[in-house]
Amino acid sequence: MSNEEQAQKDEAQPVNEAAIDATAEQADAEVEELSAEQARILELEAALAASEATLAAQKDSVMRAIADADNVRKRAEGEVDKARKFALEKFASELLPVADNLERALQVADKENEAIKPVIEGVDITLKSFVSSIEKFGMKVIDPQGETFNPEQHQAMSMQENAELPANTVMAVMQKGYELNGRLLRPAMVMVSRAPEGGVDTQA
């Protein structure tokens, strides 16, 4: 190798070292920049997770509040409906003797007596009109003649053996019962059939 070539090589050597140093510095800068970006990403991810958790908690609170409000509304509607249906319960109970008296009048009247026939017809029309009127307000007559004894609606006043009817059949209605919008106001008082060897369970 000539002296000139050696000199050129010696001159090139510092240039290469400078280039290496510059590359190393650039790499360090990129690493620092990347680390800063990663830290920022982690920070944003943590903030996003916290925001999502807060949103989920707030959504849960809102759903609970909506459910509570809906429950309160339903309870209020139920109470209003119950009050509307049964506000007349006491008044309706006071009307029952009126119907009983009209029915008794028809039962004891002498239907063969022409002189009182118009009165009997008037009482019958009045009773039918009365029953029709109270039914408009949710009252219902319980007249279980010939039906199976139901302790939830009937009160057995007596039992009588009867081979022609199945046991626990209502043979006679001594006093009709009434209910108001499905609630029993008064049970029907009845006579119930029984087989010679058995009776009827009159307990509710």
From TrEMBL:
Q: Which GO terms describe its cellular component?
A: cytosol
Main location (coarse class): cytoplasm
Q: Which GO terms describe its biological process?
A: protein folding
State the function annotated in the UniProt record: Participates actively in the response to hyperosmotic and heat shock by preventing the aggregation of stress-denatured proteins, in association with DnaK and GrpE. It is the nucleotide exchange factor for DnaK and may function as a thermosensor. Unfolded proteins bind initially to DnaJ; upon interaction with the DnaJ-bound protein, DnaK hydrolyzes its bound ATP, resulting in the formation of a stable complex. GrpE releases ADP from DnaK; ATP binding to DnaK triggers the release of the substrate protein, thus completing the reaction cycle.
Q: Which family does it belong to?
A: Belongs to the GrpE family.
Q: How does it associate, per the subunit comment?
A: Homodimer.
Q: Return the protein name.
A: Protein GrpE
Top-level taxonomy: Bacteria, Pseudomonadati, Pseudomonadota, Gammaproteobacteria, Alteromonadales
This protein's gene is called: grpE
